[in-house]
Amino acid sequence: MTVSPDHLDAAVADGSEIMKQFVPASPFVALLGVQLEEITDGAATLLVPYRPELTTVGTMMHGGLIAAAADIGVMVAAWAGRPVPDKLRGVTASLSLNFIAPLMEDGLRVRAHRLSTGRRTSHVRCEMYSESGDALVASATGTYQVG
């Protein structure tokens, strides 16, 4: 199933509710196994459980997975708590990512929070940690446009 605005209930209270619908319905997000753990006004925590299919060499999680998880975190935090726009659409305008340490045979926890909110554009910071040890794996900033 492809997610389209027709599959989402735009009559909900805010962007957090849109993200609660979107995350489990998105085919790519589901392929990665991303789970929405928590969402509050301007912030979100996501989890990507470890799976051997997501590794690059041995048990090291692929850097592309970490980048995709950062992008998803930026999106969710940008929508979190915002008013629902007339048009249910959004796009990442920029993403800058710094890898800090390899993630070995462990899940990835993404903590994203909105730094600033404009009329349509938000700036978001994401930190990615190992699920079990809470070791910092990567840090990202992104700009996301809603509506």
Automatic annotation (TrEMBL):
GO terms for molecular function: fatty acyl-CoA hydrolase activity. It comes from the Bacteria. Residues 60-134 form the Thioesterase domain. SUPFAM superfamilies: Thioesterase/thiol ester dehydrase-isomerase. Pfam families: 4HBT. Coiled coil: none annotated. Keywords: Hydrolase. Gene3D superfamilies: Hotdog Thioesterase. CDD domains: PaaI_thioesterase. Belongs to the thioesterase PaaI family. NCBIfam families: unchar_dom_1. This is PaaI family thioesterase. It comes from Tsukamurella conjunctivitidis. The lineage of its organism: Bacteria, Bacillati, Actinomycetota, Actinomycetes, Mycobacteriales.
